[in-house]
Amino acid sequence: MTGEDGAVRPAYERLDAWLREIPVDELERRHAAAEIAFRRLGITFAVYGEESADEKIIPFDVLPRIVTSDEFAGLEAGVIQRIEALNQFLADIYGPQEILKAGIIPDELVLANSQYQPAMTRIRPPGGIYSHISGIDMVRTAEGFFVLEDNLRTPSGVAYMLENREAMLRLFPKLLREHRVRPVDTYIDHLQDMMREVAPRGVRGDPLGVVLTPGSLNSAYYEHSFLADRLGVELVEGGDLFASGRCIYMRTTEGPERVDVIYRRIDDDYLDPLEFRPDSILGVAGLMDAYEAGNVTIVNAPGTGVADDKAIYSYVPDIVKFYSGKDASLQNVETWRCREPDSLKYVLENIGELVVKRVDASGGYGMLIGPAATQAEIEEFRSRVKADPDGYIAQPTLALSTCPTVIGKNIAERHVDLRAFAVSSPDAVRVVPGGLTRVALKDGSLVVNSSQGGGTKDSWVLSDA
């Protein structure tokens, strides 16, 4: 909200004046109203591994994160460049593997990756799009925005982005109008357009799409049902679908209906017991055969997880350069690959000052924040890294930007990041003018994940009109 000189940044001047005028009790009342609305709507998530797996209301803060039109234009261009390059990378590693032949990335980092799916070497998705729906996590420091992580498998959080905006429209309509905030509900239009554009060839009329969920016990089930409702398609589980004649059908009360596009929210390993895990009861036997025949499109394509592995992340600037011939306009956070001897030595010697992450983990799990850890936790993580250096990367502890946040009867600064959502079709990559701001609600914490006690904010991109 303020610059390094302590002055309020221009984008926040109107909000700053509003905060000085609104009574604290009124702000607290509206904050409570938002929580009640979220509870009534069932906007929940579950945290795996807790003694109580009850679903929780995701904490929502009513003070928005504001991004200017010019700032967003730079982020949008960088996200588009990044996603286009990563889709080219996926097409390449499942095809001619030119980037491996050129020695840009070590072969084993790709071909031995647990997310690499050899079955995809036989399949080219429609339009060459592997990651149709992507989420790019960014953080802001004094030097600007940096990419912290790429999410190209089944990125979550878009339902919270849309519901956050709905809540703000109900609670603070005048404030939104005064700021001329760009809408985020165009995301659903982009998603519908993309699902039509990537449907198999020869489909007559509108293609039939579905959202495939592992079921109501999944931590993101609310989002699955929300998206199916907004898209106007059926929410299905594996048992609702079956394969016949290298096509996929949905069971209905009026008989089988052929499915053209499956927006899957199931991990690769569980998609098809004939191709992946034979013990899976979540997917559809024969799905990959129908996919290979070109009779159904899977969104996102299996095997995209290679591109959001945290070790591959460290090569994304090189990937952008290799496929586009240009430097990445959005830079990575400095990263040490523990698989490299010099980097491993540095990390082990400085582990108490670094953030150390498993390359295949997400949701804030498998991570050490050195400055906030106990000596016992540091030593335990040091042992883990020594035992499996290939499984870890490390990054500096960044001075993340903060936003004003309602904490009880007070307003306090809390660290935030920003997940930008993009939809990719053969014609274009479209980035939603907003995204999901995640906020670390614990004082001093840098962990914004809801599974680790974080919350969310509405993200306002200002119109330049």
From TrEMBL:
Domain of life, per UniProt, equals Bacteria
Q: Which residues form the Circularly permuted ATP-grasp type domain?
A: 64-440
Q: Which organism is it from?
A: Pacificimonas flava
Tell me which SUPFAM superfamilies the record gives: Glutathione synthetase ATP-binding domain-like (SSF56059)
One matching Pfam family is CP_ATPgrasp_2
- According to UniProt, the name of this protein is Protein containing domains DUF404, DUF407
